[in-house]
Design brief:
alpha/beta; Rossmann fold; 5-stranded mixed beta sheet
Length: 334
């Protein structure tokens, strides 16, 4: 399965925005970071939800699994992962011989934290004979106890590919319910976790924004609630959201129902289009505080001091790697 990754373009053509630092200081930090990365044999990977200046200084921007897979393939021996903890873990699991640095150890994930290895063990005991499908937004310990992982882009294909008719889907209930509707031939039991950023959005918020832009196309992430998905024109993963714009060549305005950080990449790729966050105000509901915990100073410190190195116990890494590799092997049309 080939996964596209959005490359970073010329920083002169796409200047840094959104930083509290003076432009000259930001430019100096960018230059210092790039020089340090070269000196330390490091690649900088940033998730679509990171702040604009972090996205701009990165070598590659994409979703968590795309970046983890890319981390395996790049020649650099060190990965600086600008995202949240489970993402850096996945990169380490797939590239065990490389050093993975997370610039801020406090960058966690409420969705990943909604299920632990112990709670998954209890859940499996309650539903014997079910295959466990775990969303990549989870800890390595939970992945290691799963039969297979999935992303928001391939979740339905993964569930459809399994020989088992009974599925335990964890941890995101909204994504799980969306998958269950797409694969009705399977019995899907859904864990009661969620991403608060997506779960807080309601269709009323979307309709209020749409009322002022009735011609707008609504693009929603499947972690959103069912009522939001029902009013969306397109439901897809973060990376697919960026490319979905080209499917509507006559549309000039898009309402985006996911974390607002993705708008930066959408504007860079489609500068002639208007992108509006579905809650109507950037930084209100569609805001993940964990995704905004890394800045340029932290990236520089990570490179200078080698902080903070992410490690995964070998037995846990082996189980998590198995679940991830099984997912990667599933054809999209399975």
């Amino acid at each position: 399965m080939t996964l596209p990754v959005v490359p970073i373009h010329d920083p002169v053509a796409h200047p840094v925005s959104g930083s509290d630092l003076p432009a000259a200081e930001v430019a100096g930090l960018e230059a210092e970071i790039r020089a340090l990365a070269k000196e330390k044999d490091a690649v900088i990977l940033a998730h679509n939800y990171q702040v604009p200046e972090v996205q701009n200084v990165a070598d590659h921007v994409g979703d968590s699994l795309q970046l983890a897979i890319l981390g395996q393939k790049v020649p650099q021996s060190t990965i600086v992962f600008c995202g949240v903890h489970f993402m850096a873990e996945s990169a380490k699991v797939l590239a065990p011989d490389k050093r993975v640095l997370l610039p801020n150890l406090s960058a966690g994930c409420s969705l990943a934290d909604s299920i632990t290895a112990e709670s998954l063990e209890d859940w499996k005991a309650r539903y014997p004979g079910h295959a466990v499908v775990t969303y990549v937004n989870s800890t390595a310990e939970v992945k290691a106890l799963s039969d297979i992982c999935c992303t928001s882009a391939n979740a339905a294909s993964v569930v459809r590919s399994l020989p088992q008719q009974k599925i335990l889907f964890t941890p995101d209930r909204n994504l799980g319910r969306w998958v269950a509707a797409k694969v009705p031939e399977k019995e899907v039991v859904v864990y009661d976790g969620c991403c608060p950023v997506h779960d807080v959005l309601r269709s009323a918020n979307v309709e209020k924004v749409r009322a002022s832009r009735p011609e707008a196309v609504v693009i929603a992430h499947p972690e959103c609630r069912a009522d939001v998905i029902d009013v969306a024109d397109v439901v897809c993963s973060t990376t697919a959201m960026i490319s979905a714009v080209e499917k509507f060549p006559s549309a000039r305005t898009f309402i985006v129902a996911t974390e607002h950080g993705i708008v930066h990449q959408m504007k860079k790729r489609w500068p002639d289009r208007e992108f509006i966050v579905a809650d109507g105000c950037i930084g209100c509901r569609m805001h993940c505080p964990y995704m905004k915990m890394i800045d340029l100073l932290m990236i520089r410190d990570a490179l200078v001091r080698g902080k903070h190195e992410v490690r995964v116990e070998p037995d846990v890494a082996a189980g998590a790697r198995r679940a991830l590799e099984r997912m990667i092997a599933v054809p999209r049309d399975a």
